[in-house]
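Subject: mismatched residue count in predicted assembly?

I count 230 residues in my input, but I want to confirm that the predicted structure covers every chain. Input:
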Amino acid sequence: AQSVTQPDIHITVSEGASLELRCNYSYGATPYLFWYVQSPGQGLQLLLKYFSGDTLVQGIKGFEAEFKRSQSSFNLRKPSVHWSDAAEYFCAVGAGTGGFKTIFGAGTRLFVKA
Amino acid sequence: GAVVSQHPSWVICKSGTSVKIECRSLDFQATTMFWYRQFPKQSLMLMATSNEGSKATYEQGVEKDKFLINHASLTLSTLTVTSAHPEDSSFYICSASRGLMNTEAFFGQGTRLTVV
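Triage response: the counts match. Full output below for your records.
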């Protein structure tokens, strides 16, 4: 069965510091991978996605993620965090035929300190 | 393109009543729609998958008689929470997919349900 693991429940970084959020997936075929961000009480915003090709994908708001098949990982990175990046981040894998079922990880809450 | 709209954004209802949440794909035809539930500070849990014109497929542990899903057209799916109770209070999010050849589902903004 497909699954997504985000090992860090929460992370605190200083504003201006770099960020890496970890994500590991389990999926039998080539995965479609996503990172979403959710601010409190809000819906989801897609940051970036990987389907195929270049394993380093660029997203919005200065985020990037690297797909590593050998490690079954899809970690999210940002070189310099801004206070407005504080939110919940979800890694997800797209699976299934007849539509597109998205399986989410547990999420990582990012806190940014001044 | 690919906008999904949910209505209402938030709703408060009395215990024992039913409430309907709509999910619309505004600029594309959604052959498949998904309904998720999110408890506070938790992840999104898939409740059911609905294909236009057929019965929804519910995930294990989801009561199909309590959460009625209708996908009568290619642009509209509805989730009805029947005989709502306070424990049904949650954030409900839908997503829509164009179908087999699509590689992404598009999410609505969510509906906050509070049962009092």
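Chain B touches chain A at residues 6, 31-34, 36, 41-46, 49, 51, 91, 93, 95, 97, 99-100, 102-105, 107-110, 112 (CB under 8 Å). Marking this ticket as 'not a bug'.
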